[in-house]
């Protein structure tokens, strides 16, 4: 999907640069004009080939991504507790930094934030140096807490949400641990079987002077392949090159859009990803609305937090456009068909009663339960699938070895 850069004047008279993906230029123009923007210029970003350094950097960073959520949840909870006890924010940061382990990945960022506080910089502005750690949602809530004087409450809300996110990630990790260990253990055992045991048996079978079944011939070809180091090295190089090209493609706006679309459409995993996105979206939106962020801005930030460009295009931007036209959020969500109806009904009830933040929080809790249930079901299905897969693999090896022997026995019998 094409990406456009729009230079515009916002309804409040400020110049604003907007980057948005859309199937065609006119749809963006119509959407922005409806929201009261004046468009100065609009141009499409054309995809150019990556230079070698940028491509290698993207490829390396794809595998170096680190999850800071658990460390950040602990630090945020400590900040909330210390600030609630009446300690100044500078002293609170000092306490956390002093008590942090030398290898704590947040120690350096926290020291930078403390330095900014002492120099009189805004905390949320200092956090912008570490966007991978302090997300737009995190910085936005901190800014709201500072503006309203409720910084301790802001950190408390952030801590609660981060703790839920960490708990959810642990559930996903726990659900995937058994299948992953089983798969890799079986892979190692089968490689050992192919490299050290089967070659000796295959040599005997090849000398039997009988017409070999196709499954035995396939096994022998595969064995020759595994025992040829040059072919294995060439294959590994090809796999690495293919992975490099895929990562580079995913790094582009179009590639990320297609990748995010596929993630939502995969069997079983797709439903889990949809539940997770919806849960993160509702939870972030609830928090932002609670602290008085305008609806359109809150929806935009929440969509960015969940980090799925397909859902941004098909859910977030349509909601923003609908809200600007005076349509309720629940009705806009229902139109897209991408949010569970139970969640939509809860949000509609919140809009009717004027307590949309609480209803969004309830919707997030319900989606979290659905996600946990889906993970449990996927684990239940994965175990028998792994057993069937491994049984079929072992059976194919046994047939490849035993069928020629069976043919010889038949020949002798005749």
What would you say this structure looks like, in words?
The structure is a single chain. Residues 47-52 have low confidence and may be disordered. The chain has a 3-stranded antiparallel β-sheet, covered by helices on one side. The chain has helices at residues 25-34, 52-64, 69-84, 89-99, 107-118, 123-126, 136-148, 151-206, 214-226, 229-250, 253-265, 269-290, 295-306, 309-324, 329-336, 341-353, 356-413, and strands at residues 3-9, 15-21, 38-45. Helix 8 packs antiparallel against helix 12 (269-290). The chain has 414 residues and is mainly alpha-helical. It contains 17 helices and 3 strands.
Could you give the topology of this structure?
Blueprint: E1 3-9, E2 15-21, H1 25-34, E3 38-45, H2 52-64, H3 69-84, H4 89-99, H5 107-118, H6 123-126, H7 136-148, H8 151-206, H9 214-226, H10 229-250, H11 253-265, H12 269-290, H13 295-306, H14 309-324, H15 329-336, H16 341-353, H17 356-413
Antiparallel strand pairs: 1-2, 1-3
List its salient traits.
414 residues; mainly alpha; 3-stranded antiparallel β-sheet; 5% strand
Element-level helix/strand string? EEHEHHHHHHHHHHHHHHHH
Share of helix among residues?
Answer: over 70%
What share of residues are in beta strands? 5-15%
Structural class assignment: mainly alpha
Main beta sheet strand tally, sense and closure: 3 strands, antiparallel
Give me a quick take on this structure.
With 414 residues, the chain is mainly alpha-helical. The protein has helices spanning 25-34, 52-64, 69-84, 89-99, 107-118, 123-126, 136-148, 151-206, 214-226, 229-250, 253-265, 269-290, 295-306, 309-324, 329-336, 341-353, 356-413, and strands at residues 3-9, 15-21, 38-45.
């Amino acid at each position: 999907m094409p990406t456009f850069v729009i230079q515009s004047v916002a309804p409040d008279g400020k110049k604003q640069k907007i980057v948005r993906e859309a199937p065609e230029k006119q749809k963006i123009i119509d959407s922005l004009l409806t929201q009261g923007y004046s468009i100065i210029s609009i141009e499409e970003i054309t995809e150019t080939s990556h230079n070698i350094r940028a491509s290698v950097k993207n490829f390396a960073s794809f595998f170096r991504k680190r999850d800071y959520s658990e460390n950040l949840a602990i630090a945020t909870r400590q900040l909330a507790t210390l600030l609630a006890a009446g300690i100044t924010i500078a002293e609170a940061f000092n306490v956390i930094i002093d008590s942090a382990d030398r290898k704590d990945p947040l120690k350096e960022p926290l020291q930078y934030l403390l330095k900014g506080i002492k120099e009189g910089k805004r905390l949320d502005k200092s956090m912008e140096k570490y966007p991978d750690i302090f997300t737009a949602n995190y910085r936005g809530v901190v800014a709201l807490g500072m503006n309203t004087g409720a910084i301790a409450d802001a950190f408390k809300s952030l801590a609660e949400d981060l703790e839920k996110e960490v708990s959810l990630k642990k559930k996903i990790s726990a659900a995937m641990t058994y299948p992953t260990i089983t798969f890799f253990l079986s892979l190692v055992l089968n490689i050992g079987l192919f490299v050290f045991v089967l070659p000796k048996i295959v040599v005997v079978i090849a000398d039997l002077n009988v017409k070999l079944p196709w499954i035995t011939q396939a096994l022998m070809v595969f064995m020759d392949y595994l025992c040829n180091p040059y072919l294995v090295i060439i294959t590994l190089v090809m796999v690495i090159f293919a992975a490099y090209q895929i990562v580079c493609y995913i790094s582009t706006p179009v590639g990320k859009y297609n990748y995010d679309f596929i993630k939502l459409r995969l069997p079983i995993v797709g439903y889990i990803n949809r539940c997770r996105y919806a849960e993160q979206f509702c939870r972030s939106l609830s928090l932002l609305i609670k602290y008085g962020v305008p609806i359109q801005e809150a929806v935009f930030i929440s969509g960015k937090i969940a980090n799925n460009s397909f859902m941004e295009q098909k859910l977030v931007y349509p909601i923003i456009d609908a809200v600007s036209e005076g349509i309720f959020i629940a009705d806009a969500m229902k139109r897209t068909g991408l949010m569970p109806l139970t969640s939509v009904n809860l949000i509609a009830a919140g809009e009717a009663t004027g307590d949309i933040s609480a209803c969004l929080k309830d919707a997030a809790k319900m989606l979290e339960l659905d996600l946990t249930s889906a993970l449990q079901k996927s684990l239940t299905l994965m175990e028998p699938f792994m057993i069937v897969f491994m049984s079929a693999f072992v059976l194919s090896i046994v047939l490849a070895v035993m069928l020629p022997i069976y043919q010889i026995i038949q020949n002798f019998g005749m």
